[in-house]
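lol ok so funny story. i was supposed to be doing the assay writeup but got distracted and ended up predicting the structure for this chain instead. priorities right. anyway since i did it might as well share w the group, maybe its usefull for someone
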Amino acid sequence: MSTEDITSLLISDPSRRHDPENSPDGMVQAAVSQPLPLPSFEDAMKSTFLLGDYSHGRLLFDWTPLPDYQLNESANLLYQMMNVTGERFSLDQLSKGQKTGDYFNENGHLLSLPPYVDDSYTAKVRKSGEGDLSDMEILSTCQLLS
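and the output, tada:
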């Protein structure tokens, strides 16, 4: 989808604003925009996507190599994704990738075998709470975030 296509979509279907309402911090007004159309599978496979964390104003993943674990930029992105989600790519998923052999061995592990790091929301909330939050509070917070 080109910049012109996005501009045309936003002109034809602009975001809408809710009526202003009182909050403890003063008057607030929320804007609602519509999702962009999903790209086709073929277009998605030819694209590069950046994921952002708007609550912290930063990219979700760090696009840098991780030499300590012999990971280039692309392999480190895969490593970060697996650590944040706590999931691994299935062998079925990897069998469909054209560059799978560049990053994964036949067992589905990254070639340099970096250690697993629990970087999930649960781990982050548990660490930031440092004993101040019960397991139920941690679970509730993580469900809200996901």
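The longest helix spans residues 73-85. The mean pLDDT is 82.
back to the writeup now i swear
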